[in-house]
User: What shape does this take?
Amino acid sequence: MKCMYCQAKMEQGTVPFHIDRKGIHVSLDEVPAWICPQCEESYFEEQAVDSMQALVTVVEEQIHKFAKTA
Ligand SMILES: [Zn+2]
Assistant: This one.
């Protein structure tokens, strides 16, 4: 895999990721990603993006459930 900005060879690593939604702020320190050693651009694999979206969905569902029973 090559960087779409500088064409350098991407390396596998981890990067921090933050999700900010209305009332929900999820912060992950180490998410697997491809990182460009030259320009430090990072890309998440589709699987990682799906997992993070699923995580937020679960949190939202739990909050709605809690709000109804409270
Ligand atoms: Zn690059």
Q: What stands out?
A: The domain at 11-69 is CATH 3.10.20.860 (Ubiquitin-like (UB roll)).
